[in-house]
């Protein structure tokens, strides 16, 4: 599965629930957050100080880093 930096966090978690474990592994508090419906992956990575490319790679692999 492929995800991009402009994808909404909530859309990713809803369409691919297995990605929730990736968000949790990166210690991102996006699961259940009302802002997840508005935040893109880029926004969330910036807010949490996460390397976007590393996070996207983990999301696309479906495996936490």
Automatic annotation (TrEMBL):
UniProt-listed InterPro entries: CHP03980_redox-disulphide, DUF1858, ScdA-like_N_sf
Domain DUF1858: 6-55
NCBIfam families: prismane_assoc
Name of the protein in question: DUF1858 domain-containing protein
Native organism: Bradyrhizobium symbiodeficiens
Biological classification of the source: Bacteria, Pseudomonadati, Pseudomonadota, Alphaproteobacteria, Hyphomicrobiales
